[in-house]
Amino acid sequence: MVLDISESETIEAVDALEEFHLVDRVNGSENLDGMCDQGPWWRTVHPHMAAAHMAGAESRLRRQLYELNTRRDSLTALASAYPAGAHREAQPPGALEVVDSLEDVITLIEQASAECTQEMITCQPGGGRPPAELEQAVDRDTALLARGVRMRTLYQHSARRHAPTQAYVDRITPAGAQVRTMTDLLGRLVAFDRRIAFVPHHQRRGGAVVLRSPAAVAYLCDAFDRAWDHATPFCGAERTKVAVDDLRQGILRLLSKGLKDEVIARRLGISLRTCRKHIADLFQELHAESRFQAGYLAATRDLLGETAR
């Protein structure tokens, strides 16, 4: 019999029949005419036989599945006796240290500062720092800069109006420090050489969590770098105007979210009185009579987007 199909179609059809066990390959057997056939040939298989063959395969699969489940149960039982955390990547000693005392935190920061050789980054939300703290930082920071350490600090825009912070910046920038500001910050952070980082304790005032895990420190430093790229340099009247515009835009953005004055002031590091003055000015400029209306008008005028730099 001659079939009106191509060779590739024939091969595809035979493969499909073989998959369902409806044909069987025969090697070196006699053909239908009783002649010896040197090459392999195919013979058809009754569907009942094909079904029986598949039933056997199904039985073997069930047996294999049972064996796999048995092994999984054994491994689960073994896991309970395995040392906790032994499968994790080894961390350096003291990868995470909780320090409750402010004095101890200061001691550890001074030690890390003395050992720092390449870079120090700091993120200081909440407006200007206390004058006494800034005065202590001047000596430490100028000593770092004198050793060739790169220093970058992020403040919120409100720090531009803080006289002690202005004086601090005026003293360290000539030595090579870089200071920038932005509306909102990711949180308080001090990191040295991208190997050790200090973040605030979430419950103990003045306490800190000291991170030495390479992955955790790298994550925090990368977040700082992204914020730094969008911040405004702390210098010049023109830059200050940009910062004020960013601050007012931040107030508008938080107003549009329905936040209260107290929350907005805390988020942006400004006093409640200053915050309410900005809000009153914005209401007047937008001709708005309510917070909802102010947010709506700001959105329609595209005043909530990122300020181009």
From TrEMBL:
A Pfam family per the record: GerE
Membrane-traversing stretches: none
Source taxon at top rank: Bacteria
CDD domains listed in its UniProt record: LuxR_C_like
Domain named HTH luxR-type: residues: 249-298
Protein name: LuxR C-terminal-related transcriptional regulator
The organism of origin for this protein: Streptomyces hyaluromycini
